[in-house]
Amino acid sequence: MSTSNGEKSLIVSFGEMLIDFVPTVSGVSLSEAPGFIKAPGGAPANVAIAVARLGGRAAFVGKLGDDEFGHMLAGILKQNGVSAEGINFDTGARTALAFVTLRSDGEREFMFYRNPSADMLLRPDELNLDLIRSAKVFHYGSISLIVEPCRSAHLKAMEVAKEAGALLSYDPNLRLPLWPSKEEAKKQILSIWDKAEVIKVSDEELMFLTGSDNVDDETALSLWHDNLKLLLVTLGEKGCNYYTKSFRGSVDPFHVDAVDTTGAGDSYVGALLCNIVDDRSVLEDEARLREVLRFANACGAITTTKKGAIPALPTVSEVETLLNAN
């Protein structure tokens, strides 16, 4: 579903990149874990690598610590074909770390080390505006809204991308432990809601943002706004629901043996963005959109079958194998 890099338009992903420390054994608490493995992550960085892995053109914009971990992460982006022109290094703050427990069902619990971490200290004047202006899609989350100066950098980057004609894509990627309170999380996540043209939320995020116990169409559409072209609700192993101005529906999941859900949503988003960056008319053509979402569901599913986010992000041939088998 993708052509060679040379003809591709640029997808710029903005936000945090960090290292997850994952226990060497699953299903234990952090205190019980005998050891940990480094797993590079951070949702916006995962999306950028997901795009590149699928043959798209991606860049990451954010700040890392001027430390071994920060340079390791920048190296991982480059090794995976993601442009690192938008990365700044902070000499005074460390790269963010997170300790993640994998429960026996593959779901995660987090403990973060960010006080403050380098990603939080990105300033508006450090942004690579030329890179941001060259984006056809500008993708971001909400973690970069939590504190200044990163929040101002986020808002400025969004504004510059929009003025240059980029499609704005938003995956709030709720991490409650990072916010001062639930109320603040909801308020800030919704503070930029009406700017995005593509929004993806999980079923849990939908319930959090609406205060509803349902993930039905009515609940989802309460989040609709006039600038939106596509609202997606991912339902984990139940597939996804989609909403546009003209149509709505759901796309079935792929059933796989899930080992680790980390990065599945990022893989899904990367696949979607890859397939709309050069042709936004897909968003108005239900048959084609369903094909793209089936491809995205396959990407998400494959990502759950291996441990860690980045190693598990699929190539086009892996996705085609799964699509052809179903």
Question: What does this entry look like structurally?
Answer:
The protein contains ten helices and 13 strands. With 326 residues, the protein is α/β, with parallel strands linked by helices. It has a single domain, classed as Ribokinase (UDP-N-acetylmuramoyl-L-alanine:D-glutamate ligase), CATH 3.40.1190.20. A nine-stranded mixed sheet has the order 5-4-1-8-9-10-11-12-13, with helices on both faces. A four-stranded mixed sheet has the order 3-2-6-7. The radius of gyration is 18 Å and the shape is globular. The model is unreliable at 1-5 (pLDDT under 50).
What layout of secondary structure does this protein have?
Layout: E1 10-14, E2 18-23, E3 36-41, H1 43-53, E4 57-65, H2 68-79, E5 82-90, E6 97-102, E7 108-113, H3 129-133, E8 135-140, H4 150-163, E9 167-170, H5 182-191, E10 198-202, H6 203-210, H7 217-221, E11 230-234, E12 240-243, E13 248-251, H8 264-276, H9 286-303, H10 316-325
Parallel strand pairs: 1-4, 1-8, 2-6, 4-5, 8-9, 9-10, 10-11
Antiparallel strand pairs: 2-3, 6-7, 11-12, 12-13
